[in-house]
Amino acid sequence: MSAAFYQPPRCHFCIGSHLPRSCNIGKLYSSANAAPMEALYAAGMPNRFALVAFVPIVLLTACGSEPASPPKPPVHSEAIAHETELVRLKLTPEAQKRLGIVTERIGTGTASAMRMTSGEIVIPAGVGGAPINSASNLQQLGAQQVSAEGELARARAQLALARVAYDRASALVDAEAGSIRARDEAKAALGAAKAAADAAAAQRRLLGPAVASIGNQRYVWVRVPVFGSDLAGLQQGQSVLVSPLGQDGAKRSARPVDAPPSANAVAGTVDLYFALDNRDRAYRVGQRVSVALPLAGGRSEGLSVPTSAILHDIYGGEWV
User: Fold this and answer.
1) Model confidence pLDDT, tens digit, residues 119-129
2) What is the pLDDT of residue 30?
3) Which CATH fold topology does 110-124+220-299 show?
4) Which of 49, 167, 239, 270 is spaced 20 to 30 Å from 153 by Cα?
5) Looking at residue 132, what DSSP letter applies?
C-alpha cells in the first residue's frame, strides 16, 4: 500500500502551547491515517477560543475601574479682605487743605430721637377747607372758585341794596312820614342779605386761594402720612425738620397746624400737617420732601460728631 507524506507549515496556535514543536495540521495525508490529523486539529482549537474569550473580560474590567467625577459645588465662596488689610492713605497738609479736610474734637452732647419719613407740599385752604395737593383737579377747582366769587358778588350787592332800603325806611319813620312796620321789614331784609353774604364768603374761603396764585404763597403746608400705630411714639405738637427729598440741603423748621382730619383707610395712615415758610419759593405744590419727626422719650446723651464726618461704605457700614 503506497503512502504520500505532506508537511504543511506550522500553525501559529501551536507556538508556545503544550503541543510538540513539530506539530503539523496534518501528519499523514491518506485515507488510512485521517484520525491523527483530526485529533491534532481538535487539540489546537481550545487555545484559540480561550484567547478570544479572555480579551473582552480584560477590557470590561479596565472600563469599570475608572472613578466617577465629583459633582460641581453649587456655591462658590471667597474670603473678603479684613478691615485691617485696607490701604492706609496719608495726605500732605496741602492735599488736606485742597480737599477741605479738617480735624475736630469729638465731644458729648444730647439729641432727640428722630424718625425720618416723607411728606408732600400742599397749599393751605381757608378755615375748614381742604388743602390743595397734586391730586386736586385744578380745572374743576378753578370753575368752582369762579362760581363762588360770582355768588359772593351777588350777595354783597343784595346786602348793599337792603342797607339802603333800611336807611330810607328809618329816615321816614324819624320824619313821621313812614310806618314802623316798613322799617322793621327793611331791617329783617338787611339781616337776611347779610347772612347770605357771609355764607357766600365762607363758601369761597373753603375753595382756597385762586388757582393763578397757588405758586405765590408765602406759607405752604407739609402733609405727612403716619401709620396710626406710630402716633403714640411721636411728640405731638412739636416742630419738625423739612428738607428736599434726596438732597442734602438746609433743613427748615415747620410748626404743626390744625387742619381738617384726613386719612387713608387702605394704607392705614393718618395725615399730620405742618406750616412751612416759603417766601423764597423754594418748594412747589406736590413736591416730595423729607421730614424728621421727633420721637417721644425726651433727649438722649451720647458722642457728638459732625454729620459730614460720617461715611457710608458699600456694605451699609458707617465710618467716622
Assistant:
1) 999 888 766 56
2) 43
3) Elongation Factor Tu (Ef-tu); domain 3 (2.40.30)
4) 167
5) B
